[in-house]
Amino acid sequence: MRNLIRGMTVSLLxxxxxxxxxxxxxxxxxxxxxxxxxxxxxxxxxxxYFWTPGYWAWGGGGGYFWVPGTWVMAPAPGLxWTPGYWxWAGGAYVWRGGYWGPHVGFYGGVNYGFGYxxxxxxxxxxxxxxxxANTTIINNTTAVNNTTINRVSYNGGSGGxxxxxxxxxxxxxxxxxxxxxQMQLDHQAAASRDITMRSSYNHGTPQxxxxxxxxVFYGRGVVAAHAGGPGGSAPGVxxxxxxxAHPGGAASPGRGQAAHGAHPAGSSxxxxxxxxxxxxxxxxxxxxxxxxxxxxxx
Length: 298
Description:
The protein has helices spanning 2-16, 135-138, 167-173, 182-192, 199-202; strands at residues 23-29, 50-52, 55-58, 64-67, 69-72, 80-82, 85-89, 92-96, 99-101, 124-127, 130-133, 154-155, 210-211, 222-223, 291-297. By secondary structure, it is of the alpha+beta class. The protein has one domain (23-284). The radius of gyration is 18 Å and the shape is globular. The chain starts with a helix and ends with a strand.
């Protein structure tokens, strides 16, 4: 009975929220995004906040850029965040955006950490209309996977995670979804304007990997990526199936450090110029600069 009442409550709330649009910007890129950087989550700013992991987005001429993990408020009680992911389709890497919904759906089998180990979510739950974060999981990303942590950031293609939606994830995909909040959209837009977030600048190790407050990339509550991780692609393993595109794995996460002496967006640290652009080799002979954005219905 309690679950039935909760389900009815969530359904009523969904009816009042901006539902994810039937058409969205369709982004495809000819080469894979970098691996996920190694970092830890900053402290939760206040009870009730929801941790959303960082991800690589595409910035057109600027290439891939990092959108730092951050704490946000859910649009309504009972909603959970399903992260977006890059997936290989039609000869390119296609971005499938994240959304809010009653259940966590498929996010490509990508191990984002912090409760998102590739399948499902273990980073918190709703209790009596109040969201309670599982800080034990969020503060210890290795709790998701007791073996080597895989940091590949895309599904399919060369070296990508081998994963398909589970039955539960397929059901979640058919539920009514809510688009990212304005706070999340503004957070990504701010990251897109910051040159230090570009993979061509940070080589896969951003100075700001996570932030306590959305859109605030400098000062207190900022966490840098761990410098020990490689900046290239890595083989992928789906936690549910154990399947791997290639043998091996990526390094385990370590503790990040606050980005002291941070510099304003669009500038370079220490008065030095930004390094020359470094572009990964395109797959299938395509141009490393090619990216397309067009409207496409879901």
